[in-house]
Please model this.
Amino acid sequence: MDYTFENLTRDLSIGHEIEFIYSDRRFSITNTPAGWSLAEYYKNEIELFSSHQDLLQYGKIDGRTLHEIWSLVTVKSIF
Model:
């Protein structure tokens, strides 16, 4: 399945959450009561954003934005 950055943007805008693999590490984007989080599994570090738009614009993994890495991501779940 070719899940583009545009698909991600659309799905987050309607409230979906996602789990994905990047660089052999598992990450999640989750809508929490405190805001939208970008987190790596089994790590305590969580980036928190007030909106999914902010997460998409400012969220980074290894110093790169989600847009920059998205072609290298393997989507595991969308819920």
